[in-house]
Design brief:
The protein has 342 residues and is an alpha/beta fold. The chain folds into two domains: 2-138 and 279-323, Rossmann fold; 141-275, 3-Layer(aba) Sandwich (Rossmann fold), CATH 3.40.50.460. It has helices spanning 15-30, 42-46, 54-57, 81-91, 103-116, 140-161, 176-184, 199-211, 249-261, 281-300, 319-323, 331-338; strands spanning 2-7, 33-37, 49-52, 96-101, 120-124, 164-169, 189-191, 217-222, 233-238, 244-246, 265-269, 305-310, 313-318. The strands form three sheets. A seven-stranded mixed beta sheet has the order 3-2-1-4-5-12-13, sandwiched between helices. The protein has a four-stranded parallel beta sheet with strand order 7-8-6-11, with helices on both faces. A two-stranded antiparallel sheet has the order 9-10. Helix 1 (15-30) packs across helix 10 and helix 6 crosses helix 7 (176-184). It starts with a strand and ends with a helix.
């Protein structure tokens, strides 16, 4: 068999480990060939490819980013896009495709499978951990580790200046990074997209903490957190999948908290630093397990499936099970975080 592979959406620690695992399993164990498409779905649309070999991918497990590059290209927003994807599969004599990505990338894969008969297997990727049908997505553990380390550093500077520091982290619709990172970093308050911000509640909590003798506070807020039904946007422009650009909630919240509490307050936006660098050991292993499982599914002809982690085991589910509905933060887990507010 000849197998294509692409990485789409935001870059994520662990992508290279998936590529490495797919190539090694496919070539060494099944005698298949693997061809990489460059820049996500733009690769098959524009014919951008690169050969992948065992030797050329051998040392990728510790590298962040993706050697195949990525983009947020949506074939269904391009003139003749789906047809060009199928034609690219045919012209490159490919029997199947492995799509590594999040809700948007896997959503496109599912649609191409159902409407155009594309033989595709998906590997779930997102630092936000918001894909359903899998306990965790790779990249999430790395992002949380980075966030918690950054919060550790914020503690010392906030305490030195008797300040409140608001740390804005990623999380468009789900607060997994904010909740896990905030708990691990010892944040004094955590705000997530799933629950509207009650400013007075936050103000009262910070005042109680300071009245009890704490002279500083750390507030973690996900970029998608809202004041009631209002999103804070960096730009009204939409990407190829209809998403607006979020950002700015941290700065706005910091100004409001300073006004209402009288405590000197500053905002810190971690931004893309959460995506960068080498994956953690957990993400390296999970990415490897996912890559091997995806290669196995292709070899067995089980298309329209997504690999997933369930109870510590690698399983496969229909792609639509992963992308049909976002996995938002577990309310009980947020209650755990709430134990440490004030």
């Amino acid at each position: 068999m000849r197998i294509g592979i692409l990485t789409g959406g935001g870059d994520c620690p662990g992508l290279n480990a998936v590529i490495r695992a797919v190539v090694r399993r496919s070539v060494r164990d099944y005698n298949h060939e693997v061809l990489g498409f460059l820049e996500g779905w733009k690769g098959p649309i524009e014919g951008k490819t690169m050969p992948l070999t065992v030797e050329g991918t051998a040392d990728l497990i510790q590298q962040g980013g993706t050697i195949l590059k990525t983009s947020r290209t949506n074939p269904f927003k391009k003139e003749g896009g789906p047809g060009r994807v199928m034609e690219s599969m045919k012209s490159n004599k490919l029997d199947a495709l492995i799509a590594v990505g999040g809700e948007d990338t896997c959503g496109v894969a599912h649609k191409l499978n159902k409407e155009f008969g594309l033989n595709v297997v998906c590997v779930p990727k997102t630092i936000d951990n918001d894909l359903s049908a899998t306990d965790f997505t790779f990249g999430f553990d790395t992002a949380v580790s980075i966030v918690s380390e950054c919060i550790d550093r914020l503690h010392t500077t906030a305490e030195s200046h008797n300040r409140v520091l608001v740390c804005e982290v990623m999380g468009r619709h789900a607060g997994w990074i904010a909740a896990y990172g905030g708990i691990a970093g010892g944040a004094h308050y955590i705000l997530v997209p799933e629950i509207a911000i009650d400013l007075q509640q936050v103000v009262d909590s910070l005042k109680r903490g300071h009245a009890a003798g704490r002279n500083y506070s750390i507030v973690v807020v996900a970029e998608g957190a809202k004041f009631l039904d209002e999103e804070v946007l960096k730009s009204q422009a939409l990407d190829a999948f209809g998403h607006v650009q979020l950002g700015g909630i941290g700065e706005r919240l910091a100004k409001l908290l300073e006004k209402e509490t009288g405590f000197e307050t500053r905002a810190v936006v971690l931004g893309h630093i959460q995506r960068g660098g080498s994956p953690t050991a957990f993400d390296r292993v999970l990415s490897t397990r996912f890559g091997v499982a995806a290669a196995d599914l292709v070899h067995e002809g089980k298309f329209g499936r997504m690999v997933a982690l369930s109870g510590g085991k690698i399983v496969d589910v229909p792609i639509e099970a992963g992308v049909g509905q976002l996995k938002t933060l577990d309310p009980d887990f947020y209650k755990l975080a709430g134990v440490f507010f004030d």
